[in-house]
Every structure is written in structure tokens, then in C-alpha cells.
Amino acid sequence: SVTYPRTEQELVGAVAAAASAKRKMKVATRYSHSIPKLMCPGGLDGAIISTERLNRTVRIDAKKGLMTVESGMVLRDLVEAAGAAGLSLPNSPYWYGLTIGGLLSTGAHGSSVWGKGSAVHEYVVGLRIVTPAPASKGYAVVRELGADHPDLDAAKVSLGVLGVVSQVTLALQPLFKRSVTFVTRDDSDFADQVAVWGRLHEFGDMAWLPQQRKVLYREDDRVDVSSPGDGLWDSLLGRSIPTRLLINGRAAEERLQEGSTNDTALCAAGRLQADSLERQAYGFKNDGLNFTGYPVVGYQHRIQASGTCINSPEDGLNTSCPWDPRIRGSFSQNTDFSIALSKAPAFVAEMQRLRDLSPDTFCAGIDTRFGVLIRYVKASSAYLGKPEDSVDFDIVSYRSRTDGMPRAHADVVDEIEQIALHKYGGLPHWGKNRNFAFDGAIAKYPKADEFLRVKDRYDPDGLFSSEWSDQVLGINGSPNIVKEGCGVEGLCVCSDDSHCAPEQGYFCRPGKVHGEARVCSTSANP
């Protein structure tokens, strides 16, 4: 069953109804959900509580720079309301279709190690959360956590296992503008630059284009609000597109990826797409309508995030978001992990060595439009936040719609991921990735035990927990699922040929650079 509470009182009633019946619960949001099974309730008759209608601004105190919103407010509406009040949320993820409650639960972030950093949860100074309670308290209670409350560091990155966030209070800054310029250089000093780029530019990021041997550097800095410019970011990859074009584009992608797997053709197609994105300035516009040259200067709330397809009208699917599940459009795998900033140069050097062995295989293994997106995240006090300053690596890859179908050169991404997680102690993004990435991840968080103690107090019966969350948090079981084909789907790290697709020529092999890695590969060498 699904309930749509409109007020905190109705939210308390929804939690109480499920708690009194001992039913498992999870929260759903308006436009999206995480890639792992975080929003799936446990049991066979779990309840879904949607925050779609809990989407209002509660109060704004412009003098104190404080803004309180309901947890179902999407990022787009939040930053626009802040801007209208003369305030800016200093950092955010790049897609604005996320809700504030959802993005906090998974530790979502932008790119910065300046100030408090890029994770939105670092700007949370208050939170109201509804949790189960005994019958004597009506089966549900509202807990109010202020800035100094010891449980706030558990609640502001919670994976949704503590309860339902009702309201969030954020500490904002006076309205400011940003100046954005993209510069492409060769990747000969990529490993050196990854260590310093985030210190040079407040909102700087990078995108590595491995087959082209280039790095796209984003020079992105705060400028005074009086600086001329009314720039806008309307990401090309987040716009509504004619559905026919999306379906045709996916069909062409399937022919290239699942047909003869012609690496040369894939590389050529990827270069064309990357060049097209560059010519269109990645969706940045100087005056909100046209791009006339760098830098693009605009207000923070017009630059920090995008995703205009969520604004598009319902037109009978004549147009769609690229990932709309109702059409046969984009379908991809998203691998995202972070590595301590101090270790990032050595990791980048290993990625480059792997690329140098066979550059063209990266055209199939990694989406050449995006490359590897690299962002910066500061150490957090949140129990499930980053323990130290980190570099986040985000990789999008083609995924077949046929269960068990191997991806061409999937071993490229699988080896990169295993190098990151196993050799360099990387952390998987809580809202992305495949099963095997979470195996043992919780042990890398020094304050995980403190988080679990709060969880036991807030929800002793585990009504907001599921089999998946128990596995990820190390409470019971493992996220790995070992069976035939599990290595192909990322359900396990292969240890036997049957975990790959031997009937299609894919066998379990050591990594090419990291010998301890085990990947599904067409390599003839065992």
C-alpha cells in the first residue's frame, strides 16, 4: 500500500498505522529512487510512504540565513525559493529532481572541499523525523534534532533506516554568483592535477576522457553578486527529448554494443557525441537563452543544478526524460566510489596504465559522452559521511536490457572498481552501484557502531529496515549473491567461470593491472 501524507500529523498517522501492525515501511519520493534497493520495504506486505505532497517551505529567516522545508521538496524548488529570499544553498548534487530528504539519506553531494564542502548534509542544522514508538506513545513520535543534538550526525545521512524525515532546516549563505569555464587539456599530468584541482577552484570538477587522452577541467568559482551575467545551466543530458529520437538512439547503441562490438565504431560515435556536447557548452547559457562564450556567470541557484525534463509537460510521451522507464530509451549502470584525496593520484595513475594497455576498449566499457566524472567531497561529521577529504569517481556504462547479457569490455570498469574499493579503500556511493561494491563497506566507517546504536533506539523492531539495508550495514548477511552469471550483473566478484558467461566467451580472469582483481573477460589468458 502507498500513503501520501500532506502534513506532519498525517505522516505520524501513516507511521503509526504501519507500526501498530508491525508492517515494514520505506519512503518513496516524487521523481526518482536510488539504484540499490534502499526504497524497497522488507517483508511481503510492506508499506510505502510517499513524501510527494510534503513539498512546502515551512519558514525562511533571511537575517539568520535559515530555511526550513518539508522533506519532499525537490532541490529545484528549494534553491529557487532560497534565491528569491536572497540566499544560496552553497552546494548540491547536479540533478535537481532529488528531494531534500532523499538526497540527505544517501549523502548526495556536488564538488568542493572549500568551507563545509560539497555534501548537502553539512548544511543541515535541524531536522524533524518521525520514528516508530511503543503503543503507550501512539506507535509513532516526532523527534526534533537541533544543531547540537548528538543524534543529528546519524540522522542527516541515514539510508532511510531511522524513520521518515519530516522537515529539514538548512544554514544558507547570502546570494552569490558563480563563474564557469571549461578547459580541455591532455591527460599527461592528470594524476598530479587530481590532487590540487579542488583546492584551486571552489566548485571545480574534472571529467577524464580516457580514449581521447584528455581531461575536461571545470574552472568554477564564486564571484560577487554584482558581477554581470544571468547565466543558466540547462544540462543537455537532463532535458526532455523527442521520444522517437531516444528510442532510435538506444537502438543504435544496442547494435554497436551487442552486435559485433566494433571498438573503432564505438570510439568514433563517442567522439562525435563528446564534440557535440562541447560545442553546446554542456548546456550552459550566458543569458539563459544562448551561449556566447566563457565564462558563464550566473546566480548560484541557476548554475548549481539542472534537469529541466522534470518541468516538461505531459504530452502523451511525445517527449521524455532520457531514462523514462515507460520507453525503450537510455538504460545504464552507474558506478560511483570515493577515494581519500591523499590516495587519488596513485589510483588515477593505475587507471591510466589500464587505459594504455588497450585504449579502444574504454569506448565500450565507459560511456564516452561523460568519461569519468571527478568531484571533491570534504570530510564529514556524519556517521555515514566521508571520514576524510575525498575524490569521487562517477562512471556511467551501457547496460543491456537482457538479463545476464555481458557488457562489451565490462572488465575495464570492473577492474577499476575493484582497484578503488579493495586496493585503495574506496567507499561506494550509498545511492548508486551494484551489490558487490557494498560488501564490507560499512567496516570502512569509523563511527558505524554509533550509527547502529542510534538506529536501535529509533527503530528497535527494524520496521524501516529491509534485507538489503541489513546486508549493507553489516547487521545480517552479505549483499553478494553468488550464482551463475553473478559476475556479469555485479552481484558478486567472480571466482569461477560459471559466474561469468562461458557459453558466450566470458571467463573469470585476473585483472590486467591489478592481479588480485577478478573480472569477467574474453581474454584468452587464464
From TrEMBL:
Might you give the EC number(s) for this enzyme? Answer: 1.1.3.8
Molecular function terms from GO? D-arabinono-1,4-lactone oxidase activity; FAD binding; L-gulonolactone oxidase activity
FAD-binding PCMH-type domain: residues covered: 1-175
| Record key words, sorted | Ascorbate biosynthesis, FAD, Flavoprotein, Oxidoreductase, Signal
Record's catalysed reaction(s):
L-gulono-1,4-lactone + O2 = L-ascorbate + H2O2 + H(+)
Family to which this protein belongs: Belongs to the oxygen-dependent FAD-linked oxidoreductase family.
- UniProt protein name: L-gulonolactone oxidase
Note one Pfam family from the annotation: FAD_binding_4
Task: Quote the pathway field.
Answer: Cofactor biosynthesis; L-ascorbate biosynthesis
Residue ranges of coiled coil: none
Cofactor(s) recorded in Swiss-Prot or TrEMBL: FAD
Listed Gene3D superfamilies:
3.30.465.10, 3.30.70.2520, Vanillyl-alcohol Oxidase, Chain A, domain 4 (1.10.45.10)
Q: Which InterPro entries match?
A: ALO_C, FAD-bd_PCMH, FAD-bd_PCMH-like_sf, FAD-bd_PCMH_sub2, FAD-linked_Oxase-like_C, FAD-linked_Oxidoreductases_BP, GULLO2-like_C, GULO_Plant
The top EC class is oxidoreductase
GO BP field: L-ascorbic acid biosynthetic process
Q: Which species is the source of this protein? A: Aegilops tauschii subsp. strangulata (Goatgrass)
